[in-house]
Amino acid sequence: MPRFRLADMNTLVVAFALGTFAQDALAAEPNCRTIEGTGPRLACYDVAYPPKPKEPPAANNSAPRAAYNDPLIAEDARIAAKLKNICRGC
Fold first, then answer.
1. How many CB atoms within 10 Å of residue 71?
2. Is the pLDDT of residue 1 over 50?
3. Pair 13, 4: CB distance under 8 Å
4. Within 13 A of 48's CA, how many CA atoms are on the CB side?
5. Three-state SS for 81?
6. pLDDT, tens digit (0-9, with 9 covering 90-100), for 23-40
7. b/e string for 6-27 if b means 16 or more Cβ within 10 A?
8. Between 44 and which of 12, 32, 36, 71 could a Cys-Cys bridge form, CB atoms 3.0 to 4.6 Å apart?
9. How confident is the model at residue 76 (pLDDT cuts 50, 70, 90)?
């Protein structure tokens, strides 16, 4: 059974603590609620949460399309013709 040294345990504790505090630091948001003026508060929210760009309109799908040509239909017909020409009981 492996034995842990005190240095190994300290390393694990430090890594765990850094991981815990790093999540809090990344999740920090500007505190826009405390700003008194309406204009500066809205500017703070605009910086914190920028508006998403609008998607371009979809292409016109009402245009007529060419008929679908299935490439397997021709291959199925060739195989069926070969199977019909097999001599059964020659």
1. 6
2. no
3. no
4. 13
5. helix
6. 555 555 678 888 889 999
7. eeeeeeeeeeeeeeeeeeeeee
8. 32
9. very high
